[in-house]
Amino acid sequence: MTLQQLRYVIETANCGSMTQAAQRLFVTQPSLSGAIRELEKELGVELFLRTNRGICLSADGAEFLGYARQVLEQAELLESRYGKKTPDRLLAVSTQHYAFAVNAFAELVKAYGKDEYAFTLRETTTHDIIEDVKNGRSELGLLYMSRFNEQVIGKMLDDAGLVFNKLFRADPHVFIKRGHPLAERQSVAPEDLEDYPCLSFEQGIYNSFYFSEEPLSTLAHSKSIRVSDRATLFNLLVELGGYTVSSGVLGADINEKDIVSVSLDCDEYMDIGYITRGSSKMSSLAESYIDYVKKVCEK
Fold first, then answer.
1. Which of 278, 287, 284, 267 is CA-nearest to residue 167?
2. What is the pTM of this model?
3. What are the structural domains of the chain?
4. What's the rounded Cα separation, in Å, for the pair 170 and 24?
């Protein structure tokens, strides 16, 4: 068993497709499939159920995945502590899919101003953000709390020894393309959106409503598309005339000629904030990053 095989299993489980996992891992699909089959043979269990409709984790596979994640997280911690030293091993941040988080990160790196550095930014699932900060993979994690999810997420943070630090409260908005039939409205109600595709970020095997990055996640949709990255979401939003629910804060990397933000009539809110380990003091770079987040959002 190798760490590479563990990475293959985790990415395949996250993608739900060996073809997509192979693309993201920059390996061929036969190589990926062969490595997983060798691991299954070594373990004597079937990790994935293969059908004409695709693949999914078996019961043994779901249990194995939990152990695999722990092993890789610990391996990364060992590498960070004892591995080959980079010029400066600096700040790592995990975040939900917020353009303002990326914009602020870019400002931090530009302001750092040195010839050599090693920063890390991960746009990932809600569950993995919490795990990253809990296990020291990231110093900070950006996510939101709401009336709906705060009890569940709050308990997870308490159990992990993490603290949520609120940055600002936002009212939910919908992002739609400029020229959309609803684009000129001051606000829209959920029922106004029923005829349009709803786009959201998939959460892997932890696809609970409470981990959703979009408020009102429990509403049923006749047209629903889940994606794993912001670029794909916004491309589909424009091409299909769909919408997504978010904080309403448009980032500088979103083409504002194509996307508009419209207020959503609902009684929900989004407390945008960052999580840290309660026992650790934030580094000066982490504090600077949060300052840039505030400045970007104020704009």
1. 287
2. 0.70
3. 3-82 (1.10.10.10), 89-169+271-298 (3.40.190.10), 170-269 (3.40.190.10)
4. 33
Cα separation, 114 vs 103, whole angstroms: 19
Buried b (16+ CB within 10 A) or exposed e, 139-167: bbbbbbbbebbeeebeebbeebebbbeee
9-52 confidence digits (pLDDT tens): 898 888 888 888 888 777 788 888 899 999 999 999 899 888 87
**Which residue, 20, 11, 9, is CA-closest to 43?**
9
Angle at 185 between CA 181 and CA 191, to 5 degrees: 70
The candidate with the shortest Cα–Cα distance to 237, out of 285, 184, 179, is 179
End-to-end CA distance of the chain: 50
Alpha helices, DSSP H, located in the chain? 3-15, 18-25, 29-43, 59-82, 99-112, 126-134, 150-160, 230-240, 284-298
